[in-house]
Amino acid sequence: MSELDSTDPSGPSLGDERRARALAATPVSVSWLPGEHFGVAWTGGVAVLDRGAGAEAVGRLWHQLEGDLELDAFVDVLLQATGRRTVELPGFAAALHVPGADRGVLLAARGSFVASARGAVDRSVTGGGVATWSERTAEDVEWIAVRSAAPAAPTEPADEEDELLPLLSGVVRARRLQRPRTPQAAGSSATAPAWRMTADRPAAAAPVVHDGATIHSPSTSARPLGLVPAPGAPSTPGPRPWRGPGTPVLGELCSNSHPNRPGSDSCRYCAAPVAGPPRPVARPSLGRLTTSSGQDVDIEAAVVVGRAPRARAGREEEAVLVTIPEPHVSATHLEIRPDGWDVTAADLDSTNGTFLCRRGEQPVRLTSVPARLASGDVLDLGHGAQVRVGELP
């Protein structure tokens, strides 16, 4: 990997004093400029990824990004989220807070993207002309930016500072994210780096959807996470075919504000047209499971099946326990869980195993590696004990 250094990083000015004060007065850590790519913000940094990464993959990436990361860890998460090899990774620019360094930042870029930092010595890296990515460490950083290297359209305003929007944490359609040097907000730590994010996804409460494109903490809105109303749609749609505030995922809304898998032509609930760019939405129930013992279970969280099932350590609160009282079924036999808009199943080292039966195919014995399920699949636990999978997105 190569290292590129510049004492004049390409990036916007800080804008007028009035706008800087306005941004500083709100619990905002990042400003972003709308565009065609994906902007991602979390406590430990910011990144812009090529639009070819796909909305679902970027959504998975954001959910796995937590706190400060080394570049290797960031790339590992990106590989897992996209399902690609290193040489197939989408273009990106990232600015990562260096673990253990108050004002240290690692800049990385791949493809037609640029990462910049201003501080004791200004730094900038670009991903052009390298097979993997370029990277560089910057110290005493006061301002960071990640952006597409493509020039802005000539019809756009020359002063892009007036177009910047606020973001605390989440995924947006953007061509640039930045964290300018602004005064510390009231009550914040005086020793915290000015550019670094001041809040993360709340641990005890679900995030809320603010404007259909960004995710903010509950302190910025009183509305609980739920449907993102489509433009012109009523704020309270009709009865929802799911319950509770589902996990936030990237989705597309129909005209009745039902969330759907990105790329859907029509709504799976009401058949209305689906339109608009992907945005964070509350994931609905992805379908229903029916057991041979007569139980129906909505797929809204992990479902653990067994003779006396117990959730995995650390997942007790989110798991739904389904009991099949048969002696040949292991105490904790099988786990079915939503993954983005997909549903997967994994055998939990059961004694007699679990077989995935799909119409027109030979049964396959499941392992501990999650296997993607399809509508109509049957999970056979032996001796007539089964779990049937209903219609999936």
TrEMBL record:
Residues 231-242 have a biased composition (Pro residues). It holds the Pfam family FHA. PROSITE patterns: FHA_DOMAIN. CDD domains: FHA. Residues 219-246 are annotated as: Disordered. Keywords: Phosphoprotein. InterPro entries: FHA_dom, SMAD_FHA_dom_sf. The keyword Phosphoprotein applies. Residues 311-356 form the FHA domain. This is FHA domain-containing protein. It comes from Nocardioides imazamoxiresistens.
